[in-house]
Design brief:
single chain; 162 residues; alpha+beta; 26% strand; globular
Length: 162
Amino acid sequence: MHKTVLLLGSNLGNSKALILKAKNLLEVDLGTCILSSSIYISEAWGFETNNSFLNQVLVFETDLKPKEILYLALDIETKLGRERSSEGYSSRTMDIDLLFYDQEIMKDEELEIPHPKLHLRRFTLEPLSEIMPEFIHPVFQKTMHKLLVNCTDNLSVTKLKN
């Protein structure tokens, strides 16, 4: 079994329900969710919008390989109404990023693991630090907590109250 770490994000529609639905769909084909962060509300990163994002980090045990996880994530995004454009970042009903796969490092034209921008994004580091603060990034050799402390992203990220 492998451990994979995913980030779910949504800022269109009923984002909280969409995150729950994505988690349920992932559990059907990916495996058992063994850890989940709180849901966080954050400002959009990389583009302007009036809609805040909801984000959650999930850790799964899986037999799937990274590319299989990528294709599953893309399929779930589409099922949940994601429409892709070639014009960079935009609002979306669902975004699923593959952050880590065990301690593997890989890069090709379709997929890079660890996610190449996670250390720059407070909306990713806050939930990661909540549930796995001592996990060591395989490229930077720093814990999630240390990456969060050193993160220069000043966009607002707060835990959603239940």
